[in-house]
Fold this protein.
Amino acid sequence: MTSNYFEILRGGINTTFQDKGRENLYHIGIPFSGVMDNRNFLLANKLVGNHLTAPVIEFAYQGPHLRYTGDQLNFVITGDVIFKIKKKDYEIDGDCYHSYHLENGDEINIISTNKSVYGYFAIGSEIDLKFQWNSCSINTKANIGSNNGKKLDRGQKINLLKINSDKTLKKVNYINSKIENIRVIKGTNFDYFSDEGKKIFFEKEFIVSKLSDRMGMRLEGQKIENVVNTNIKSEGLVKGVIQVPADGNPIIMLSDHGTVGGYPKIGVVVSVDYDRLVQLAPGSKVKFQEIELSDAETLFKLYEMETKNLLNQI
Amino acid sequence: MLKNISNLGDAALYCDFGIQVNKATNLEVIKYFNTIREKKIKGVNNLTPSYNKLIISFDLRVTNFNEIKNKIENLDTTIEQNKNNKKIEVPVCCEENFALDKSRLEKKLNLSYQEILTKFFDKKYFCYMTGFIAGMPFLGDIDENLRTQRLETPRVKVPQGSVGITEQFANIYTFDSPGGWNIIGNTPLKVFDDSKERDPNLINPGDTIIFKKISRQEYENSNDK
């Protein structure tokens, strides 16, 4: 009998449970999935005293509206998010990166992300979830993960198991920086594109299309002309690969991507830029910038150090 | 033979086994895939074998391109592998509402549907890889007279169980999914089962597939339906 739970009064646009995702399953057609923005995921868990890779609720644009029933617990929201906490007699605007106490009957209304896409809601408690391949991450395309692989919806309940005993409130000062130049390493089919096409890719602005989700981000701009072949024999993909199909518009593979694909790869977004890439909302303008492998490796090390420093401040 | 190793971004190796797409090349890919899996190389977190490529993903927090490249170049692939490749029979019903591209194929291939099916069911198929969507097998090679391009405009939703052909390959849609292959029929068989975490794929690279034509009645009576 579970006595601590959330009721979902509104599901939001794309609300899912996520954690670090699944490894070593590409060969059977299952991608990593997991949180889109890893740094905000780690910060959220640290701020409520969870294991760093504990399951969190990820939402996109409009988040869920939840009512809590049970004993006092802590929660936090990370990202750039507008949300309200409704207590018995009053309502307050919540701040991201501050943990709050939640009491029986309180409500959290996650209104929207602000000029970004993903936000994270972490609960200072173990959540009752089904794990598949050691991960609760919901992959709605393959119906894999907790909640039968489906996004969270109105009327559902989130049952909690064991509330964390330490309920100290914590905060950290952090501002999400926006990305304008996406750094890429040339792809394995870079030479399939015309000189003009290559120039467009690295010099012109692209706009993030509305047709973007956890699988991929579509971009619109000047057409990138292919002069060799608009199809290749299907082969593996990884997160960050930029494919250019026959229509000349780039598509960036994101966490729930199909594991193989047959479009030429013009480039790959470097790991250091992934957390900020996924936060680009439709309509955002971006440019691609070439970078060498060794520089990408160094920048990633620095980014990891920065993340560790932030976590150590909590 | 492994011809070249390059980097795919900063967290993956792109191993190229040559431009030929045939069983011999693919068996070489699978040999590397199996050897690397058994070795459990530190930091490697995903392997994607395909017709003539192998992509090795790694965790950049743990290792880097040069380290893994060095290990792959010095890999001993001569070790005896446990070959447990299976032979699997896949029933397919090719009646009217399952054969979504019947008239398109008749026109494109200039053959009657009867002739198309005879050529299709007459062969044994080899599984080159699985992926795109969970458990989808890529099988080959189909008869030379059955080879044609993908649909000009892919379908938004290909029904689960659909058996498709394009170029020299055949596949099976394990879920309702967008897709552009020419659909010749549908199987009632469950090709991907996520309740079997250790072995969710019915068909794995290296397996042999025999398609068996079944009637509507047999389709409806199938246990997996």
User: Anything to note?
Assistant: Chain B has two domains: 4-73, 87-221. The mean pLDDT of chain B is 93.
